[in-house]
Amino acid sequence: MELITSAKNNRVKDWAALKQKKFRDQTGFFIIEGIRLVEDALESNAPIEVVLLAEDLIVSGKADKIINLSDSLQIEQIKVSQAVIENVADTKTPQGVVAVARQYQHQPAGLIESRKQSLFLAIDSIQDPGNLGTMIRSADAVGAGGVFVGKGSVDLYNPKVVRATMGSLFHLPVMEVNLDELFPLLKRHDVTIIGTSVDHHEDIYSVDLTGSIAIVIGSEAHGISEEIRRHIDRWMSLPMPGKAESLNAAIASSVVLYEALRQRRM
Question: If you classify domain 2-102 with CATH, what class do you get?
Answer without folding.
Answer: alpha beta
